[in-house]
């Protein structure tokens, strides 16, 4: 079973993004880190870029800015950091994946052929999920451990 390790600082920073948003539009970005035996270890993320498209109910990530940031991180790490998933917000809504979210996640794992993790932040909570490519399945992750510096979902 794949588990996902998030530094609490990253979760807190992303939560603050939704609280600080003045536009009421969705926000999102990539989750980057390391693939280990049965663990995805998140170490960084990208934030919305000027080429992204956002409304109160939609966030479309442009490859343009996020890809460059991810490639820079990959090079800086000696080609060990990987794209592990994505995060986005549902301002004013529930932290539940929409039909559009689920379709997008399935397309991403068909492309990467690797498990990917997804976070949705809302005013009312946090959704953490893991999309597997084979068999194609989405599993909601639950917090299984937390210490002062990180939270493990599985």
UniProtKB/TrEMBL annotation:
Keywords: Hydrolase, Metal-binding, Metalloprotease, Protease, Zinc. Residues 10-122 form the JAB domain. Gene3D superfamilies: Cytidine Deaminase, domain 2 (3.40.140.10). This is JAB domain-containing protein. It comes from Roseibium algicola. The lineage of its organism: Bacteria, Pseudomonadati, Pseudomonadota, Alphaproteobacteria, Hyphomicrobiales.
